[in-house]
Write a structure and sequence with these properties.
Layout: E1 2-3, H1 5-9, H2 15-27, H3 29-33, E2 36-40, E3 50-56, E4 78-84, E5 86-95, H4 108-130, H5 143-146, E6 153-159, H6 166-181, E7 189-191, H7 194-206, E8 210-219, E9 225-231, E10 234-237, E11 256-262, E12 269-274, E13 280-283, E14 293-307, E15 313-320
Parallel strand pairs: 2-12, 6-15, 7-10
Antiparallel strand pairs: 1-2, 3-4, 5-14, 7-11, 8-9, 9-10, 11-15, 12-14, 13-14
Helix pairs in contact: 2-4, 6-7
Protein name: Phage capsid protein
Length: 322
């Protein structure tokens, strides 16, 4: 069974949990659009937190045949992959005398919870792009590692810094068409940092293909609907900065950056969670019992991501933006 965060909200038992899930969706285009396969069952004697799958690595062809002859047998090739589900989040401690100072919307508990949700969201996005279990055993592998040396990894330099006129800027869209052409279907999400997205928006506006669309049922702090940027039907995603820093999740190194495109789906790129579907959990400080300092927590998981087909994602490795 596959669910989204919007559907997971319906499975929560507490009003606050539903609010927290909405905050995750507001803070992350990735989490709002990613499908999660509720496939891992950690209960019972054969408990496991590992999701194994076969990644389609080649495509098969088809032939004509002469009458009274047989077809030459062919088959697609797959490779076995496994990913371990992980949990992420954090905790904070607060003195009972400081918990509710000031307006309810900005008191210390609300502040700490909102910032913890924000950092958990960016930590997940960082893992989706840069995750490497060989570097961080507590995390999972992301797109950068999965696409290394694949058929959809473009390593030729794409110079976007030279596009200073309206006509020349359309070359950016040609590069994106090249990336999309490598995939096995129309991509859903395009990941890029702010500098690359600025170039892309400029080109898309000149081609009358840039739109900003509201999300039904999701309101921001100003009371207006949360909006998503799109290039045609492709949703533009800035993963943001690494939690606790000002370093972009998709870095710019000597003017060079990367751009990722993924096709979201259970046969493409998707998230993985347990059969319960309860991905978001919160624990508010309990001031009804003795003790001056109490702990609050937000946790996401167990979760991971899976790339079922190599051609469901692609990357431009060397985009020059400066």
């Amino acid at each position: 069974m596959a669910i989204t965060l919007e559907q997971a909200k319906l499975n929560t038992q507490d009003d606050y949990d539903a609010t927290v899930i909405d905050e995750f969706r507001k803070n992350s285009v990735v989490l709002d659009n990613l499908i999660f396969d509720t496939a891992v069952n950690p209960a019972g004697g054969g408990a496991t937190m590992t999701y194994s799958y076969r990644r389609l690595s080649t495509q098969r062809g088809a032939d004509f045949r002469e009458l009274n002859t047989e077809y030459s047998p062919k088959a697609v090739e797959t490779t076995k992959h496994s990913v371990d589900l992980k949990v992420l989040g954090g905790s904070f401690q607060i003195d009972r005398q400081l918990a509710h100072l000031g307006p309810a919307t900005s008191d210390e508990i609300a502040l700490q919870m909102s910032q913890l949700i924000k950092s958990t969201t960016t930590k997940f996005c960082d893992a989706v792009i840069n995750g490497d279990s060989a570097v961080d055993a507590h995390g999972f592998d992301g797109l950068s590692k999965a696409l290394l040396n694949s058929a959809t990894e473009v390593t030729t330099v794409k110079d976007w810094s030279a596009y200073t006129t309206a006509d020349a800027a359309l070359g950016i869209l040609d590069d994106l068409d090249e990336l999309q052409g490598l995939l096995d279907g129309p991509p859903t999400l395009l990941f890029a940092n702010q500098r690359a997205l600025a170039k892309l928006r400029s080109a898309a506006r000149r081609a009358s293909m840039y739109t900003v669309n509201p999300i039904d049922g999701l309101l921001g702090a100003n009371g207006h609907a949360v909006e998503r940027e799109q290039y045609g039907n492709l949703i533009l995603v800035d993963p943001g900065n690494k939690p606790g820093t000002n370093d972009p999740i998709i870095p710019v190194d000597e003017g060079i950056t990367s751009i990722y495109a993924v096709r979201v789906g259970l046969d493409g790129f998707h998230g993985v969670t347990t059969t319960s579907g309860e991905m978001m959990k919160t624990w508010l400080p309990d001031f009804t019992t003795s003790g001056a300092v109490k702990t609050g927590e937000v946790e996401m998981g167990p979760v991971a991501v899976a790339l079922k087909a190599t051609k469901a994602a692609g990357v431009l490795r060397k985009v020059k933006v400066a």
